[in-house]
TrEMBL record:
Residues 27-248 form the MacB-like periplasmic core domain. This is ABC transporter permease. Belongs to the ABC-4 integral membrane protein family. LolC/E subfamily. Residues 280-401 form the ABC3 transporter permease C-terminal domain. It is a multi-pass membrane protein. It is found in: Cell membrane. Pfam families: FtsX (PF02687), MacB_PCD (PF12704). It comes from the Bacteria. Keywords: Cell membrane, Membrane, Transmembrane, Transmembrane helix. One of its GO terms (biological process) is lipoprotein localization to outer membrane. PANTHER family: LIPOPROTEIN-RELEASING SYSTEM TRANSMEMBRANE PROTEIN LOLE. The chain crosses the membrane at residues 20-46, 275-301, 329-351, 377-396. GO terms for cellular component: plasma membrane protein complex.
């Protein structure tokens, strides 16, 4: 065993006397352990939130979305669809028309985002897994049906069992050059019956309804214009490769985005919050490491006689410096390893049993989501090593320099 490590272990594990230095060393160890545990847990929670949002988007958005770079609508030609379908790795292409619409049911009314989708859209995501009432369908025996969010249903107070009164969907008559809002010709109107209710997340539940593409096309009078194309890739295909091939095919007039890019601002916000949390807890760990600085400084004063003997026996100033830096590393690593283990256990318990609840009834998740990543544990360990190096270096250097001056 290395001599500096052996002596540092003797100093740390010595039980001959409990003095003030031992107390500060233990406080340092506990502080580093608690800070490490908290950092591991918080980073894992942010990972869980990130995965949660990705899961929610997976039930609503397709793997790849194609939309116009400029403007809301683009002209869809048979040649364009045929060219996209020939791209290797594409399983299906769903057509989407989306815009704001005004809904009324009896005396209730609300504004929603109406999404007219082709039939294959329902098979591209996990929308069927979030249906809480009714049957997922858009057309049956030439009858149009709407699938609405639970928030929209609550605002309209519309039951799925009402076979006598339908929901009225209103949309501005864009064919008129000048629109008199009080004129009966200012709006186009169609009736539709609800078939199912979904519950994903409040943003979607309160704002969206799905209707057949033909219904939206007729109401909005868009003709061959679409707002987006939703693409599902074949199992095992590389989404990045398919996305790159599509962008090369379509050129600069179209924007091809994967799920993360469709919600880039939200995911970026989560990552920025995670970064600031990491910086904050690293600062807390740095403050906790001041105890290591003070304990090593006092240990150097307390062990001056031992250091002088070691120096007289041939020890160099570099050896003395390594001795005290090793002592600081032992204190910090003991606390860090304990904190990492405790953080892992707490995250595992939360991940497995959902011990800590969000404290509210939600259709999304009942307990705080957690996902552990090796990179977070490695980052935490590297952060502690860096902090401990700076906290231990100056007392260790001072101890070595004091011996040089004295002798």
């Amino acid at each position: 065993m290395n001599l500096s490590i052996f002596i540092a272990r003797r100093y740390f594990f010595s039980r001959k006397k409990k003095n003030f230095i031992n107390i500060i060393s233990n406080i340092s160890m506990v502080g580093v352990g608690v800070g490490t545990m908290a950092l591991v847990i918080v980073l894992s929670v942010f990972n869980g939130l990130e995965d949660l949002f990705r899961g929610l988007y997976g039930k609503f958005n397709a793997e790849i979305q194609v939309k116009a770079t400029e403007g809301k609508f683009f002209e869809l030609s048979p040649g364009l669809i045929a060219g996209i379908e020939k791209v290797d790795g594409i399983e299906s292409v769903a057509q989407v028309i989306e815009d704001n619409a005004f809904l009324t049911y009896r005396d209730a009314q609300t504004i929603v985002k109406m999404r007219g989708v082709s039939d294959n859209f329902l098979h591209q995501n996990g929308l069927d897994s979030v249906i809480i009432a009714g049957e997922l369908m858009l057309q049956d025996k030439n009858v149009d049906y709407a699938v609405m969010g639970v928030g929209v249903q609550n605002m309209l107070s519309v039951p799925l069992s009402d076979n006598f009164e339908s929901i009225q969907v209103w949309y501005p008559n864009n064919t008129k050059k000048t629109i008199d809002l009080n004129s009966p010709n200012a709006y186009l109107r169609k009736n539709i019956r609800p078939s199912a209710v979904f519950a994903i997340e409040q943003q979607y539940d309160n704002n969206y309804i799905f209707v057949p593409l033909s219904f939206a096309q007729e109401l909005m009078q868009t003709g061959n214009k679409r707002t987006s194309l939703e693409i599902k890739t074949t199992p095992g295909s590389s989404i990045k490769r398919v996305q790159a091939d599509l962008q090369k095919l379509l050129g600069n007039k179209f924007l091809v985005q994967n799920r993360d890019q469709q919600h880039a601002s939200l995911l970026r916000a989560i990552q920025i919050e995670k970064l600031f949390v990491y910086i904050t807890f690293s600062f807390i760990l740095a403050i906790a490491s001041f105890n290591i600085f003070f304990s090593l400084t006092m240990l150097a004063i307390d062990k001056k006689k031992d250091v002088s003997v070691l120096y007289a026996m041939g020890a160099t100033s570099g050896f003395i410096r390594r001795l005290f830096m090793t002592e600081g590393a032992i204190i910090a690593c003991t606390g860090a390893i304990t904190g990492i283990v405790l953080g892992f256990i707490i995250c595992w318990l939360q991940q497995t049993f959902g011990i800590v609840s969000m404290g509210m009834q939600t259709s999304v998740v009942d307990a705080y989501p957690v996902r552990m990543r090796f990179s977070d544990f490695a980052l935490t360990a590297c952060t502690i090593m860096l902090i401990v190096f700076f906290a231990s270096y100056f007392p260790a250097r001072k101890a070595a320099n004091d011996v040089d001056i004295k002798l």
